[in-house]
Amino acid sequence: MSLRTLPSRLQSLTRLSKPRAFLPxxxxxxxxxxxxxxxxxxxxxxxxxxxxWPFVFIFFTGSGAYVYMVNTRANSAESTKPPxxxxxxxxxxxxxxxxPTAVSVIFVLGGPGAGKxxxxxxxxxxxxxxxxxxxxxxxxxxxxxxxQFGSMIRDYITDGKIVPMxxxxxxxxxxxxxxxxxRESGAEGSRFLIDGFPRKMDQALKFEExxxxxxxxxFFDCPEDVMMERLINRGKTSGRxxxxxxxxxxxxxxxxxxxxxxxxxxxxxxxVVKVEATKGPDEIYEEVKKRMGERGxxxxx
Length: 301
Prior knowledge:
Elements: H1 6-14, H2 25-37, H3 53-79, E1 103-110, H4 116-127, E2 130-133, H5 134-143, H6 150-158, H7 165-182, E3 190-195, H8 201-210, E4 216-221, H9 224-238, H10 245-268, E5 272-276, H11 281-294
Parallel strand pairs: 1-3, 1-4, 2-3, 4-5
């Protein structure tokens, strides 16, 4: 069968009563190319000019979409990077700012509601300590109108998380420096109780390396149920945003996971004074005074 007779043969086959979907592939192909092989009106090739603009449109649209995708991914990757805060990175020091022979630092640790603040007030009154609360310093900083870290500190405290080490250590060093400048004798004989610090090992190591080595850690040991009851009662009048059941539970968990390893670390070095904090404030303080005397601290008033 010649190419000239193919159209007439195929035409006869397509007149069959079968639907087009069941026609042999060769017939379907013929029907698609019929205008070009015969059997239908011939098309003048010169009238079929190639239209270029659709290809140009597709090219630029695809290129634009690709560039947009690349830029979007780059911006997304950039936004996931931690913000650069040069003020968080203090310069490295060869020696601490204060000498432990001139300045006495005692860390005060215990779970939230263990009674640290009450006992610190007693020690300030009777032993001449300057009381520095890491939590109070952070809350003051978050409320300071021009603070660069105020909103960040607020979010960390509300979630029961620990504020970045550099912020807390710097605030403590600033407070110690300000206090010493006001003393007639300067740093000599200065005593500091640092309440609620260090809450993580990196804080402990950084402070002792760059600010001042501690004498020991005064640890108030108290069960969670007792602390919870104290904090709920305190929340009725304290006005603190973190004195609610949900935040308290988060703070308990954070203390166990991050602060207890600090206590264990210093205990291995013989630098922990543990006081049971389940009794009344006066009974607890009697125990505190006894243990302070064992460490060479005498009352000054």
